[in-house]
Amino acid sequence: MPLIVQKYGGTSVGDLQRIKNVAQRVIRTKKEGNQVVVVVSAMAGETDKLIRMAQEITPTPDERELDVLISTGEQVSIALLAIALKSMGCDAKSYLGFQIKIATDSAFGKARITGIESEKIFEDLKEGRVVVVAGFQGVDEEGNITTLGRGGSDTTAVAIAAALKADVCEIYTDVDGIYTTDPNIYSKARKLSKISYDEMLEMASLGAKVLQIRSVEFAKKYNVPIHVRSSFNDQPGTIVCEEEEEMERVVVSGVTYNKNEAKIEVMRVPDVPGVAAKLFKPIAEANIVVDMIIQTSSADKGYADVAFTVPKPDFPKALQIVKETIKEIGGKEVLSDENIAKVSIVGVGMRSHSNIASQMFSALAKEGINIQMISTSEIKISCIIDSKYTELAVRALHDAFELDKPTVTEER
Amino acid sequence: MPLIVQKYGGTSVGDLQRIKNVAQRVIRTKKEGNQVVVVVSAMAGETDKLIRMAQEITPTPDERELDVLISTGEQVSIALLAIALKSMGCDAKSYLGFQIKIATDSAFGKARITGIESEKIFEDLKEGRVVVVAGFQGVDEEGNITTLGRGGSDTTAVAIAAALKADVCEIYTDVDGIYTTDPNIYSKARKLSKISYDEMLEMASLGAKVLQIRSVEFAKKYNVPIHVRSSFNDQPGTIVCEEEEEMERVVVSGVTYNKNEAKIEVMRVPDVPGVAAKLFKPIAEANIVVDMIIQTSSADKGYADVAFTVPKPDFPKALQIVKETIKEIGGKEVLSDENIAKVSIVGVGMRSHSNIASQMFSALAKEGINIQMISTSEIKISCIIDSKYTELAVRALHDAFELDKPTVTEER
After folding, report:
1. CA triplet A392, A396, A402: central angle to 5 degrees?
2. Mean pLDDT of the residues in chain B
3. Average pLDDT over residues B168-186
């Protein structure tokens, strides 16, 4: 019998009627001849409400206790869903993280799953029960409650699907799949029927918010197919899966943007070995993640210019650190710019197609958009531009790579 | 160093400011040179809110899942209190039922505590931490979450005090102690400074709602002194403890009443062995607890009249069962009355004083109150009367036994 793990997000269980709707969908899936494990998030708004309560007491609540607090949201959801299922005549049982040993490290608020005990779940499934699991939470070696960070329920679902070797992990959300770009920015955005793990990872980390990055990493590692779809209709969504040959025929799968970074430029630092290390070490020590880094020769010989981007919330701190650092290592001045955006194109087909970069640059140039920084990986190219051109750039790239047209595979 | 277990009820942690106040009181207790373990209830109204949600889905929610749901209320409280304590510079750690193995049976919604692991708590206390424990919840042998029933946090506190051999278990509530009678009914009601476990058990089961009965049984069994006091002031409250010699000098400690019972009378049943068993067996099987039972000879020879009381919510069902039963065992008619009240006097001194009953009957007679049923135990006498006379009876008995006057012990 096929085994399906379904995950329902906060809006899908946002009120009691929606919880009943979820119960009905679960029962339908079971009646279609599947074993079903359901992972649920907290009801929409609950986690934020709990965090606000803690922050009303103190702006910096203890991290262990904050996890005790916010993990209650999912506990309420699993109980209500199990109650709904049983009231509809479907045998069901809910489990919290500690009850099926969703083992994690002890990084409160951003813990990583290290293992799941599947015995109890298999027993229940064998008895014909639907198993309802609390997303977002786990338990560390000492029995402390941990949480997995924003979107952590996605990772719970994928981890459970991996542990149970489920046939598919369905992620139900308020959008109906992964799009070629943000439909709010460009009406020609098209829903993808399939996307590879690697592409999804680049899309997610570049700013698309549908899936938690870690859940995709997990799915890739254990080869769990993810089906991202809407809980408000029955349309198929987007399958995130291993790369298939036919995917390579599509050069660019999506255009993403990210307005949440800021740029720092250090002009005229001595171009000697070890200077970059000296510049970035204190930033790393402050737990600031640097994204793009570009080093170029300065107009002055023997000197270099270094530019890099950091998340906007970390920008003031990073700037201060850099200003301190160049007193030591030398450097003429520090420039910065918060009005930047990163636009990117992503596609596994890039590996086998040349000339994609120049097509991208031409498309931007044609709209008079200046490129400030460029970075590339095997399957993506990102450009930093003035943030006011973001939407224009996204639409231009979407057109240039004809993303509105269905691929050969999809036409079949 | 003295070890104090403090329990704060729902109104004492009813909002964030009150939680901060509790934290301050805990810190003060610690600074006075005590080790402190705190047990908290859910914030006032939370448990009811959760139950309402479940009942909106179905009038009969699954009991296991209901416990998963309603145990979140205490989880929120312990996290917020621990966050408050830590933000005030007091090291603290919260524990859920499963984390310190508050072991219970599997009677969801009314589970009984069978054991507590005290190691972790002692370790934390040794490190100078305040330990914050979720009341009302435990975990059964299979790791299911259980709850202890209304007022269950009292029992959690007493059970922990017993396990840790604490010096005292302080129960903070919205009243400032145990009174000779309900102050809302009689302004002359006086706060008792001390009361024995047995008296408290009779008072609680007779209708005083300050402590969960099971917590008093637990305290008696393990000889844990309970100090019932207000969380809104610093006045000493009432100590519930082992019977002391001086307590016996006081004949009557309190007057209680209970309007939540109804009376059923079965007239003229055959007076043969086994007839009472036949009458009450089906009632017991319906899980209805019968309180007072009186059997008298009927005016007709060879027949008896049987009268008994049941809780009002069970009254319609009990009446129906009895009507069915007498078809089988015989009986002339079934009378019933919902407008009754039970008034009782309680006191360990009764054991060594005669004539208390007749004093009670006289006091009621003087007010023209007719007694319908009487039942007695070693330390209490209860009378069933017309409910409209409840307040009058309570005041008359309070006056008759001079409960407004402080006892010799208290005057010292």
Report:
1. 145
2. 93
3. 92
Tokens, residue B387? 């409910």
Residues A309-366 pLDDT 10s: 999 999 999 999 999 999 988 888 999 999 999 999 999 988 888 789 999 999 999 9
Residue A18 sits at the chain B interface (C-beta within 8 Å)? no
Distances (CA, A) of B264 to B205, B273, B291: 20, 21, 11
> Could you give the C-alpha distances from B373 to A29, B86, B130, B392, B395, in angstroms and in order?
60, 57, 51, 18, 20
Q: How far is B109 from chain A (nearest CA, A)?
A: 14
* Shortest alpha-carbon distance between residue A174 and chain B (Å): 23
Q: Does A372 have pLDDT greater than 70?
A: yes
Q: Give residue-wise pLDDT tens across range B269-285.
A: 998 888 888 999 999 99
ipTM of the complex: 0.85
Torsion A278-A284-A290-A292 (CA) sign: positive
CA A66-B100-B32 angle, 5° bins: 75
Residue ranges of E strands in A10-142: 35-40, 92-95, 103-104, 113-115, 130-134, 137-139
A127 touches B: beta carbon within 8 Å: no
| All residues at 6 or more sequence positions from B233 whose CB lies less than 8 Å from its CB, including other chains | B176
Mean pLDDT along residues B7-17 = 96
Q: Which residues of A touch B51 (CB under 8 A)?
A: none
Which domains does chain B carry?
A: 3-174 (3.40.1160.10), 246-412 (3.30.2130.10)
Q: Are strands B145-147 and A113-115 parallel, antiparallel or unpaired?
A: unpaired
Cβ atoms of A164 and A3 closer than 8 Å: yes
Helix, strand or coil for residue A297?
Answer: strand
State the pTM of this model.
0.86
Q: Which amino acid is at B196?
A: S
Q: How far apart are CA A47 and CA A74, in angstroms?
A: 9
- Is residue A363 within 8 A of residue A379, CB to CB? The reply is no
- B351-382 pLDDT tens trace: 888 789 999 999 999 999 999 999 888 899 99
Residues of B in contact with A20 (CB under 8 A): 57
- Written as six digits, the tokens of B363 are 């006091």
